[in-house]
Each structure stands twice: as C-alpha cells, then as structure tokens.
Amino acid sequence: MASEPGATSPTNDPRGKKDPPFSPSTSEGEGTRGGFRDVSERVGIGVVDNRTMDTADPKQVWVMDGGMGHELGKRMEREKQDPTEGWIQLHVDYVQAGADLITTHSFVDTPALPPSRRNQNQKGEQDQDGNLQSKMRRAGMVAREAANKAPRNGTNKPVLVAASLPPTYSCYVPPKEPRDWMAMDKYYDVAVQALVPFADLFLCETMPTSQQAIAAADKACATGKPVYVSYTLEDRNETDVPTLRGGETLHDAIATTLNRVSSVEGILVNCCAPESITGAMPVLAQTVGAKGLRYGGYGNAFWHTTSSWMEREGHGGTPREGAVQGNAPEPLQTHRQRLDFDGSGIMMPRAYCAYVRRWVADFGATLVGGCCGTGPMHIRAVRDCVDEYLTAGPCA
C-alpha cells in the first residue's frame, strides 16, 4: 500500500538495513479471531512491558497520533484497500511520522454510532455477532503489534498504546441526562477488560460531559493502568469561555472529574477546533498543571467546524435558532486564512502546527497530536516542531 504522501516508508530502518514490509497476518482460518491470529501468538498476552510516560520529567512532551476514521475513509476511497490492511498501515504511518503514542481504533465501537459506522471485519462486512469484546480486542491487538514492530526513525523510545474509551452516547449532541447508567456501566466493563492486555494507558476521549468522563475513567482506573481524560469543546474563539459540548464549563468539568476520580493522571481537550484548544490551555495550565498532572490537546483540522455544522443541521434536521445559514461565513472562518486549508477543506500541516507550537511553548502542554481531519503529515509537522522546541527553545 502506498503511504500517505510525505510519510516515511515502513521499510526504512534507521540502522540502514531493509526490513520486510510490516504486514501482520490477516488470513482467516483455524485459530483466528476476526481475521487475526490468536492473541497469544500475535503479540503475547501478558507481555506488555508496562511502558509509561516519564513521570520523572513532567516537561517531557509526548506526540500523539492523528485521526483514524476520516483518514481511513480517504485511503479506502483512493486506493480501494481492504479496511483491515489500511487500518494496520495507518498505525504504522503514524509511528513513522514520529508519534510516541498511538490510539486503538476502538472509538468506533460505541453504541452512540449506528451499526453502519462501527468497526468492520477484513472483508468490509459488518460483524454479524455484534461482539463488542472481540472487536475491542482486535483494535487493541492491531495497535499493540504496530507499537511493537513498526520501525521508528532515529530513536529507540518505545511507542505507547492508548486504549480509547469513547462516550456511550453522541459526543456532539449528548442527552441532558444519561439514558441508562447500567448499560453504560456494562459497556465500560466489557471494553476495559477487552483492551487492558494491550494497553499502556487508557484514554477516555471526546467526552461531552463530566458524568460520561467519570463513568469511563472509574472503570479504567480499576485496572491500575494510567488513565487520561479528554473532553470535547464547543468550537469557539480562543477568547471565549471554554465549554464542553454538554454545556459545562471546562473549569467545572475538570473540578468535578478530579473530585470523583482522583487517580486520573492527565486531562486534555480534543475533537474541536484548534482555536478552542488554544482558549482552553490557560484553564488546563491553572487547574490540571497546578496539580502536577499532564495536559494537552489534539484538534480537528476542518474548515467547517463541528459546532457550525450541528447548528446548520440541527438535532433531527431542524436548524437551531440563530444558526449561520447558506454560504454565510461561520464565526471562526472570519479569523482564518483560506490559504491555510487545502482544496478539500483540510488545514495544512504547517498551519495546524502553528497552534500546537503555542500549546507547547506558551502554555506548557506535554501531550499534543491530531484528531479528525489530521493525518501522518500533520503528525510529522508536530513531531518536528516539538523536537525543535525541546532542543532549541520555542519553535521558530
């Protein structure tokens, strides 16, 4: 498979020799699960070597990976690839781009999504049994193997696997009250147990309310693995009060979460405009950073923001009162340069990196990466900026 333009070939070894292309076996047959060999053969259950972020150096910056769903969709359309092969290769490309941490592609195995958008098996068909545990295990297995075996350029630093725990209801239009706490509790029980053999840490991400974050983090913390929480924010200018999509202020959500789940090791914001993340950074620094915890962000790279899209479409197809209509510019677009986006409306890597640069250099963020719309080229730009900052001070 052709890598993302600009990404390093997976056969390039930093020691100068050529390794065989990274290609995990995906043949169906005896002893396989969903197209992958038994976990004990593939990655060795119980052999995760407890890789952790270096807590001795709280200023060490870790680069996360980028988006999965949008990037996989582009690759499948462009290259007509088997979904599973594209999924594996994308993990590898992020490692090659310089990611220190890759996230399991388990976000799509959430009850909040319709069945047509959840993880598919290698033939591109929906799993008929709907077995959440097997799909979660597959997501963990693929990420772990990529972390263990994909060659990295110029460093022996281990790649961490973050097990993604998504919200159990819509991250963009959460209900005022959880529909079913027992169902939520059961979901996280199954998801955590399926992912824990492959995880270095848990990432409860794109959380629209503190209630949902607490439900996920509480189950993850029971494993003894490090746990991080990431909220999704309304897409607003950086001077506006950072607010979760469920309506809480970021400040209140952080206080509520840390009061209920004190063992959380870091808090981030994600799946929103980078301007929103910039606006959240002072709150993160003053609340999370002041407690000696890690904080950071990973944003979307779309010209059209999620908040404006939701306002146009409304909930159930009815536009919200006062929503921007027709071709009128969205609020954030009046502050953006169209040249910073490509023809398909994706922010250019250099433009995205300008935001990340501020998160790290101006606000002390130590976890940065990309979310929806970002790809390996964005993460390569982030990696280069972080490395420059760590070796020479603020990025130029």
How is this fold's topology laid out?
Elements: E1 32-33, E2 36-37, H1 39-42, E3 62-63, H2 69-79, H3 83-97, E4 101-103, H4 132-149, E5 160-165, H5 181-195, E6 201-207, H6 210-221, E7 227-232, H7 250-260, E8 266-270, H8 274-287, E9 294-299, H9 306-313, H10 349-361, E10 367-370, H11 376-392
Mean pLDDT: 77
Give unreliable regions as ranges.
Answer: 1-50, 113-130, 315-328
What is the percentage of strand-forming residues?
Answer: 5-15%
How many DSSP-defined strands? 10
Helix % is: 25-40%
Notes on the structure:
With 396 residues, this protein is of the alpha/beta class. It is globular and about 50 Å long. 48% of the residues are buried. It is built from eleven helices and ten strands. 35% of the residues lie in helices and 11% in strands. An eight-stranded parallel sheet has the order 3-10-9-8-7-6-5-4. A two-stranded antiparallel ribbon has the order 1-2. Helix 2 packs across helix 3 (83-97) and helix 8 packs parallel to helix 10.
